[in-house]
């Protein structure tokens, strides 16, 4: 289980250019903008998440840091271990790239003020990869998973502060949210303050239960209902089962990405199934009623006399149920003819007797092929 990938949040590939990033952000930000979703805290939280993600991916330096270190690049508790230390504050980078008088990414496109770093904060969305059997994907099933994730501290309700404790300016950055250090003796760079994580303020008395973090790790059992017809790459959303929010913010969502195991007999193509069924030389030559497997039990397939290897038959409605409820796919059966082996003397004699009484009319396909070959050889 991991935090949602930033590229996944915007719905773009990892090699997306600046234009693609901006277009993806504009589309989603318009969809979740608070003006279009009044009174909807989840939409507002998603809008803010989109803004932070775009601030990271639209800047080459921050994007390179994210590509190399992932989420640890912007986590002050882990940044040093990831080899970081030179990451600038997202707002400062935005002002450098886009210009303007101290606005955030939201002001650039829509106007409005910056998020209060000590206000409510929605928990991040999480991803969980789940492997299921082929039959479970085809027919649907119920699963229970255990997810270990940060939950809002019950003692401080996610604030990170003891009851009655107030916020004061961070002594590490004197309320600026940034600290500056000098490189090579003459270059000065600004960094997010590691003590307050850029908020500029810290609580006077941190919560003793969560040690000021506002959250603590807890394993949660989550029941999932997986619909029939899902396939590898299908995603399910479990609302509110992501990371817990901070300071009264709502929790994020959990996205379950499904991986379907391969089947011994069936191959899937969209909602259709394909399987290969071996038949004997005699069944193919004389015709026969052949039993073929389906997901719901055996079905009878009538082979006409002279069925050739590779012939494809379709059994309607015996494929996969469409996950959106738009009917059921078909089962395609490809016939393979098994050539007899390990023959005894009597069996060989009978086959030779059969061959002796055959003429060109028995093997029209072979006859046609060799007629063409003769014309090729003679140039006629």
Report on this model:
- This protein is 26% helix and 25% strand.
- The protein is of the alpha+beta class and 380 residues long.
- The chain has two domains: 196 residues, Urease metallochaperone UreE, N-terminal domain (HSP40/DNAj peptide-binding domain); 112 residues, HSP40/DNAj peptide-binding domain (Sandwich), CATH 2.60.260.
- It has a four-stranded mixed β-sheet. Strands 11-12-16-15 form a four-stranded mixed β-sheet.
- A hairpin with a 2-residue loop joins β11 and β12.
- α2 runs antiparallel to α3.
Give a short overview.
The chain is built from ten helices and 16 strands.
* Arithmetic mean of pLDDT: 82
**What oligomeric state best describes the polypeptide chains here?**
single chain
* Estimated helix fraction: 25-40%
In whole angstroms, how far apart are the ends? 69 Å
Helix segment tally: 10
Strand order of the largest sheet: 1-2-10-9
CATH topology assignment of the largest domain: HSP40/DNAj peptide-binding domain
* Unreliable runs: 79-114
Q: Into which percentage range does the β-strand content fall?
A: 25-35%
Radius of gyration using CA atoms only: 33 Å
Give the H and E element order: EHHHHHHEHEEEEEEEEEEHEEEEHH
Domains counted in the coordinates: how many?
2
At the first level of CATH, what is the class of the largest domain?
Mainly Beta
CATH superfamily of the largest domain: Urease metallochaperone UreE, N-terminal domain
User: Which overall shape is indicated by the principal axes computed on the Cα atoms?
Assistant: elongated
The CATH architecture of the largest domain can be given as Sandwich
Biggest sheet architecture: 4 strands, mixed
Strand segment tally = 16
> In terms of structural class, how would the helical and strand content be classed?
alpha+beta
């Amino acid at each position: 289980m991991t935090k949602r990938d930033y590229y996944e949040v915007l719905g773009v590939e990892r090699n997306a250019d600046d234009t693609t990033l901006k277009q993806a952000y504009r589309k989603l930000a318009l969809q979740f903008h608070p003006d279009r979703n009044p009174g909807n805290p989840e939409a507002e939280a998603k809008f803010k998440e989109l803004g932070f993600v775009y601030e990271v991916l639209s800047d080459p330096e921050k994007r390179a840091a994210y590509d190399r270190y992932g989420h640890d690049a912007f986590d002050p508790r882990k940044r040093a271990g990831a080899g970081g230390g030179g990451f600038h504050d997202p707002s400062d980078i935005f002002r450098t790239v886009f210009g303007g008088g101290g606005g955030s990414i939201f002001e650039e496109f829509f106007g409005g003020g910056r998020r209060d770093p000590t206000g409510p904060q929605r928990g991040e969305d999480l991803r969980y990869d789940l492997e299921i059997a082929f039959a479970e994907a085809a027919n649907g099933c119920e699963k229970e998973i255990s997810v270990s994730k940060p939950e809002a501290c019950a003692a401080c309700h996610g604030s990170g502060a003891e009851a009655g404790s107030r916020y004061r300016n961070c002594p590490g950055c004197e309320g600026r949210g940034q600290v500056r250090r000098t490189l090579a003796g003459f270059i000065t760079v600004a960094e997010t303050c590691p003590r307050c994580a850029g908020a500029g303020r810290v609580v006077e008395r941190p919560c003793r239960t969560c040690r000021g973090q506002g959250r603590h790790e807890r394993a949660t059992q989550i029941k999932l209902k997986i619909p029939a017809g899902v396939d590898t790459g299908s995603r399910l959303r479990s609302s509110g089962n992501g990371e817990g929010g901070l300071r009264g913010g709502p929790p994020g969502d959990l996205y379950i990405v499904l991986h379907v195991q391969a089947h011994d007999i069936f191959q899937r193509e969209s909602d259709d199934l394909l399987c290969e069924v071996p038949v004997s030389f005699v069944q193919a030559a004389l015709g026969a009623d052949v039993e073929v497997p389906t997901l719901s039990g055996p079905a009878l397939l009538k082979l006409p006399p002279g069925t050739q290897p590779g012939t494809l038959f379709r059994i309607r409605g015996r494929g996969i149920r469409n996950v959106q409820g738009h009917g059921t796919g078909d089962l395609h059966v490809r016939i393979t003819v098994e050539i007899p082996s390990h023959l005894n003397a009597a069996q060989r004699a009978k086959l030779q007797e059969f061959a002796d009484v055959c003429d060109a009319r028995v093997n029209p396909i072979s006859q046609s092929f060799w007629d063409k070959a003769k014309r090729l050889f003679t140039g006629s």
